[in-house]
Amino acid sequence: MLKATLRSFLAHKGRLVLSALAVVLSVAFVSGSLIFSDTLSHTFDRLFASTAPDLTVSPKEDLSEAIPSGTTATLPAALADRVSRVEGVAAARFDAEDDGITVADSKNESVGSTTGAPTIGTDWNPTSRSPVKLTSGHAPHGPTEALLDSETADRKNLHIGDPLTVIAAPGSFKVRIVGIVTFTTTNPGATLLFLDPPTAQAKLLGSPKAATSISIDAAEGVGNDQLKQRVAAALGTGTYEYRTAEEQAKSDVDQLGGFLDVIKYVMLGFAGIAVLVGVFLIVNTFSMLIAQRTRELGLLRALGADRRQVRRSVLTEATLLGLVGSTVGLGTGIGLAVGLISLMNAFGMNIRTSEMVIGWGTPVAAYVVGVGVTFVAAYLPARRAAGVSPMAALADAEIAGIGKPLRMRAIVGGVVGAAGAAALVGCVTSSKTASAASLLGLGVVLTLLATVIAGPLLVRPVIRVLGGAFPALFGSVGRMSQRNALRNPRRTGATAAALMVGLALVGGMSVASASMSKSFDDQIDKTLGADFVVQNGNFLPFPQEVTEAVRGTEGAGLVVRSRFAPVAVRLPDGKRVETTAAGYDPQLDEVAHITYAQGDTAAALASGHLAMDLDFARDHDVKVGSRVPVEFQGGRRTELTVGALTDQDSADGFGTQGGIYFGLSTLERFAPGGQDSALYVNAASGAGADRLRAALEKTLDPYPQVQVRDLADYKDLVHDQIAVLLYLVYALLGLAIVIAVLGVVNTLALSVVERTREIGLLRAIGLARRQLRRMIRLESVVIAVFGAVLGLALGLVWGVCTQQVLALQGMNALAIPWGTIVAVVVGSAVVGIVAALLPALRASRMNVLAAIAHE
């Protein structure tokens, strides 16, 4: 049996290649994502471990910033001298750093990264652990000299002697490049500007006595933990945070971990889609191969092979396919990881492929996925093969399921579908976001399974409709193509299911994203009342001088500032909630339309008052007049009175938990030093909006980090943010379509082999080559469109339910992107035509007499 299995595998290797490609793609994405994420983690672990001082002292930050406030926590630079006298300290130095600056060249263009990496201004105080070294020029001296990293200099064509403008919180200042520094380790994509220490303190932090941290080197023989205890005892434990080199490196890695996890999970998402769609392809391939080997299997049974041996033979073939696909997929995954590393390097993150990490878990995961997927997918066809009697096989009875009742599928599909529908109904009727989202996830999984199980039941009614015009348009060729698609509902359903999965995903996400866009458009139309909004491109705060420049612009009338700050509120129900609060000028009503359930803007922005979202207040037993303890950054605490409750469309008010906001006077009192995040500008009386926009753009030309936006621009910005998610979904769709095309090609190719004699007879009675190719193309098109119809129908249901979950967060508008849906259906027909090209060509080139004589 083993010898027969190996011969069978080698005899059908051409038919198995397309199935192997599904395994290769699945394994490639799994192994590539693991290698890439392991390499990034190792690279940054090494970077942070090699550059962290033995001990770092930094200001204590109790609150996390969901939205940047522009404040830089500092401590006295004189602590360095105090620390240096502690026993066991070899050296102590202060650091003055700001990662929120903007650096512009002589053309007023930002020299910073465009990938989201920060632009960091810091003091030049090199040590043996510095991540950079001076490779040309000299160290900076005085307030007009600076060093720039070589990668930024190369990218922006900057050289020693070129002028730069540094825009920092205390104000803008001019510098000249006097030296270039080169990274000795990985550059995570950041732009680095070095100033001499006094300049960094004064120009970046606004005080010659301030620092952002103290870096300490341990004396010989003193451990880091021992050093930490001694320094903490000398400075006290309530005001500062103390991190050893290991703790600091872990903290840095944790901060980067979210970014690395996003990449890893996106890659694994692609792998999951490849696995899911590949399962259908493999099941279909083995089912058809077994159907074509009916006589061969019957002979084996007649010669004494029992059911277990036949089943084992088929599963052995699947295992061999999995091993080959996994091996090729692992190699492809390594190539994919190299490509991703090169892509990251193109975006400014310097990672060496020579340091690529392939951990033991990667090949294990690759072979588990590859072999496991093929084994599981082939198990059902193997059981079906083992169930054929010798006499039925010798009589050429096909075992692929033609003519067999679909009663069991109807029962199982109906039960699973009913459970899925109940979950989706529960999602729609739920009033809690968490439970609605959980029910949505359950409903999506169950309805997808139900559609896959019951798909063959839908083949005949749906394809009769989809192909109903074929006889009238294409005559007997059209009628035969429709009947070929109807001949084996199981096969047609499994082939279409591969395409259905991808299109259901894109349909659901398209509805969700369109609904989000429309909801935000409605919210912006309803809320925003200003002529223009001045805001940073990536929503980061900007210096006060930008605000002053806008106020001084000709034609500018009212300018209302918006500022954010992290806070923690202690609520009457005993819960402590950390969130980001907003501060506004008193004239907020003139640039924004806010709906209040109780109170008004004057009460909300009064000194010592705050406003809160109505639903959040109800959930935590807060009423107008309640006194709420509020904690600000730096340990400042106070009690504020709830002056108003808002009833905005967005459940979280201004986009943060609780929708908390208050007057800027309150914010500046308890969280001084913050920067404005947005300016709402109205034109002065008699000044036109077009003239004001031109004047504002001219005013803000020296500040490349901020833009002027009107209502339409603001909507476009939101749409662009949502589009990022949609592009990811389209990428997943592209992968699913690639594998689905392989599935259709495989099905048609095997179908042509299966129908060799039939095709020969059709050719013998006068069917032309062109007619034969058209028949196969039409069959392919109707199968692809059938998958598209099922997928889009399922996706629309998912999308509507997703919108109901979003409605609990205030996104009440439902939008169906009909243009996208029509384009997907048309595209599916094109996919069907493309997938049929090779099988149709092969069929048309058959020798008629040889085909008729085919057994």
UniProtKB/TrEMBL annotation:
<feature type="compositionally biased region" description="Polar residues">
    <location>
        <begin position="109"/>
        <end position="130"/>
    </location>
</feature>
<feature type="transmembrane region" description="Helical">
    <location>
        <begin position="724"/>
        <end position="753"/>
    </location>
</feature>
<keyword id="KW-1133">Transmembrane helix</keyword>
<protein>
    <submittedName>
        <fullName>ABC transporter permease</fullName>
    </submittedName>
</protein>
<feature type="domain" description="ABC3 transporter permease C-terminal">
    <location>
        <begin position="732"/>
        <end position="848"/>
    </location>
</feature>
<dbReference type="Pfam" id="PF12704">
    <property type="entry name" value="MacB_PCD"/>
</dbReference>
<keyword id="KW-0472">Membrane</keyword>
<feature type="transmembrane region" description="Helical">
    <location>
        <begin position="265"/>
        <end position="291"/>
    </location>
</feature>
<dbReference type="InterPro" id="IPR025857">
    <property type="entry name" value="MacB_PCD"/>
</dbReference>
<feature type="region of interest" description="Disordered">
    <location>
        <begin position="106"/>
        <end position="144"/>
    </location>
</feature>
<feature type="transmembrane region" description="Helical">
    <location>
        <begin position="778"/>
        <end position="798"/>
    </location>
</feature>
<dbReference type="InterPro" id="IPR003838">
    <property type="entry name" value="ABC3_permease_C"/>
</dbReference>
<feature type="transmembrane region" description="Helical">
    <location>
        <begin position="410"/>
        <end position="431"/>
    </location>
</feature>
<keyword id="KW-1003">Cell membrane</keyword>
<feature type="domain" description="MacB-like periplasmic core">
    <location>
        <begin position="17"/>
        <end position="233"/>
    </location>
</feature>
<feature type="domain" description="ABC3 transporter permease C-terminal">
    <location>
        <begin position="270"/>
        <end position="390"/>
    </location>
</feature>
<keyword id="KW-0812">Transmembrane</keyword>
<comment type="similarity">
    <text>Belongs to the ABC-4 integral membrane protein family.</text>
</comment>
<feature type="transmembrane region" description="Helical">
    <location>
        <begin position="818"/>
        <end position="838"/>
    </location>
</feature>
<feature type="transmembrane region" description="Helical">
    <location>
        <begin position="493"/>
        <end position="516"/>
    </location>
</feature>
<feature type="transmembrane region" description="Helical">
    <location>
        <begin position="437"/>
        <end position="459"/>
    </location>
</feature>
<dbReference type="InterPro" id="IPR050250">
    <property type="entry name" value="Macrolide_Exporter_MacB"/>
</dbReference>
<feature type="domain" description="MacB-like periplasmic core">
    <location>
        <begin position="492"/>
        <end position="698"/>
    </location>
</feature>
<feature type="transmembrane region" description="Helical">
    <location>
        <begin position="318"/>
        <end position="344"/>
    </location>
</feature>
<dbReference type="Pfam" id="PF02687">
    <property type="entry name" value="FtsX"/>
</dbReference>
<feature type="transmembrane region" description="Helical">
    <location>
        <begin position="364"/>
        <end position="382"/>
    </location>
</feature>
